[in-house]
C-alpha cells in the first residue's frame, strides 16, 4: 500500500507533511510518497531523520514543480498548473502508483482535481465530504460538510449509502443508523428536500431512523447524519469554533478563580484531556471525499504533525477496508442513473 501525500498543500508545508509521514511510517509501517518540491522535501526529511537518528523508512519523493495555493481558483489552477503537487499526487492514484491521496491544501482545488483526474464512481451523482463529530457514546459521521451547496433528494440518498459504507468498513460499525438532519423529528417537519429524501431513504431499505435535529449530532440517535453541503459546512465550522472557544474560555475562567477551584480542575484534568481528544480533528486527521473513483482525503490547512500522521493512517484503513469497492456495489443497487446532473 502506498499513500500519496501532497507535501506542499498545508499552511506549514512541507515541514508538517514530512514529519507526519515519518511518524506514520514509524508508527504504522505505512509507505508514503511525498509529492512536491524535491529539494525542499529532501532537505526537511534528511534533517529530521538525522536529528532523531532514523536510518530508513518506507518514504519516497516524487517531484512536482508547482504549488496550488489557497488563493488559487480551483479550475484555473487545474488548467494552468499542470505540474502542481496536487495534480501529480492525483495522477499517482489514477495510474495505480498510489492507493490514496491526501492534501491539506485548497479544499475546492482538491475536489476539482479529484473530479477531473479520477472522475466519479459509476452512478454517483455528487461527491460528499464526510467528517466525524464526537457523540455521547462515541462518534457520528456527518455528510455532506461542504462539497455541494445545492442538492436533490437522490444526492442525499447516495450520501446516506456512502456514509454508511464508510462507517461500516473504517469506523467498524456493523449496521450504522442513518438520520436525516431536519428542524424536527416528526416526518411532516422540514422542507421539500428533507421530506422527499426521507421517503427515498425508507424505500431504499437502509437502517434509517428518521429525522434528527442538530442536538442529535452529539447525542446517540444516529451513527451517520445526512444533510446538504450548505447546512453541513455551517455545522462543521460552528462545531470547530465551539470546541476551540470552550477550552479557551475555560482556561481564562480558571486563571481568575480561587485556589480551591483550580485544585478541583486539576483533579478532573484527565476528564478534560479525554474531552479534548474527542473534539480534536487531529484524531482522524482528514475527511474523506466520498464518491470519487479513487481514495481522496482532505486535511485542515493548519494540520499538526499528529493530524497528518492520523490522516495517513485513516487513508490506509479506507484502502484496506476497500471502501470504494463497497460504495460501487451499494450505489449500483439503488439503480440511480449515471448522469451527473441527477
Distance between the termini: 34 Å
Shape: globular
Q: How would you write the strand order of the largest sheet?
A: 3-2-1-4-11-10-5-6-9-7-8
Average pLDDT: 89
What would you report as the Rg, rounded to the nearest angstrom?
Answer: 21 Å
Largest sheet: 11 strands, mixed
Q: What is the number of helical segments per DSSP (H or I, 4+ residues)?
A: 12
Low-confidence stretches: 336-342
The topology string of helices and strands comes to EHEHEHHEHEEHEHEEHHHEEHH
Number of strands: 11
- The helix fraction, in percent, is 40-55%
Computed structural class: alpha/beta
Assess the beta-strand content as a share of residues. 15-25%
Any overview of this molecule?
The structure is a single chain. The protein contains twelve helices and eleven strands. The chain is α/β, with parallel strands linked by helices. The protein has an eleven-stranded mixed sheet, sandwiched between helices. A hairpin with a 4-residue loop joins strand 10 and strand 11. It is globular and about 60 Å long.
Amino acid at each position: 500500500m502506498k499513500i500519496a501525500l501532497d507535501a506542499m498543500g498545508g499552511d506549514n508545508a512541507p515541514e508538517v507533511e514530512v514529519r507526519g509521514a515519518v511518524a506514520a511510517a514509524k508508527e504504522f509501517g505505512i509507505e508514503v510518497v511525498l509529492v512536491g518540491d524535491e529539494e525542499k522535501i529532501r532537505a526537511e526529511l534528511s534533517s529530521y531523520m538525522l536529528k532523531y537518528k532514523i536510518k530508513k523508512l518506507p518514504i519516497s519523493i516524487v517531484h512536482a514543480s508547482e504549488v496550488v495555493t489557497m488563493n488559487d481558483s480551483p479550475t484555473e489552477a487545474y488548467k494552468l498548473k499542470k505540474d502542481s503537487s496536487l495534480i501529480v499526487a492525483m495522477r499517482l492514484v489514477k495510474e495505480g502508483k498510489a492507493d490514496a491521496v491526501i492534501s491539506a491544501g485548497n479544499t475546492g482545488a482538491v475536489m476539482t482535481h479529484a473530479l477531473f483526474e479520477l472522475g466519479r464512481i459509476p452512478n454517483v451523482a455528487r461527491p460528499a465530504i464526510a467528517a466525524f463529530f464526537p457523540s455521547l457514546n462515541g462518534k457520528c459521521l456527518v455528510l455532506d460538510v461542504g462539497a455541494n451547496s445545492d442538492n436533490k433528494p437522490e444526492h442525499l440518498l447516495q450520501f446516506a449509502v456512502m456514509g454508511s459504507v464508510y462507517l461500516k468498513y473504517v469506523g467498524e460499525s456493523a449496521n450504522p443508523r442513518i438520520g436525516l438532519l431536519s428542524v424536527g423529528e416528526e416526518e411532516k417537519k422540514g422542507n421539500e428536500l428533507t421530506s422527499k429524501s426521507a421517503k427515498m431513504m425508507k424505500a431504499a431499505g437502509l437502517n434509517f431512523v428518521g429525522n434528527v435535529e442538530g442536538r442529535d449530532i452529539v447525542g446517540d440517535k444516529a451513527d451517520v447524519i445526512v444533510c446538504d453541503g450548505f447546512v453541513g459546512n455551517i455545522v462543521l465550522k460552528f462545531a470547530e469554533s465551539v470546541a476551540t472557544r470552550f477550552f479557551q474560555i475555560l482556561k481564562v475562567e480558571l486563571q481568575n478563580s480561587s485556589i480551591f477551584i483550580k485544585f478541583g480542575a486539576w483533579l478532573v484534568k484527565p476528564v478534560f484531556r479525554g474531552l479534548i481528544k474527542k473534539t480534536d480533528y487531529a484524531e482522524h486527521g482528514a475527511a474523506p471525499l466520498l464518491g470519487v473513483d479513487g481514495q481522496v482525503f482532505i486535511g485542515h490547512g493548519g494540520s499538526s504533525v499528529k493530524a497528518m500522521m492520523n490522516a495517513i493512517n485513516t487513508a490506509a484503513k479506507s484502502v484496506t477496508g476497500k471502501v470504494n469497492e463497497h460504495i460501487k456495489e451499494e450505489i449500483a443497487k439503488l439503480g440511480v442513473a449515471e448522469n451527473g446532473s441527477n
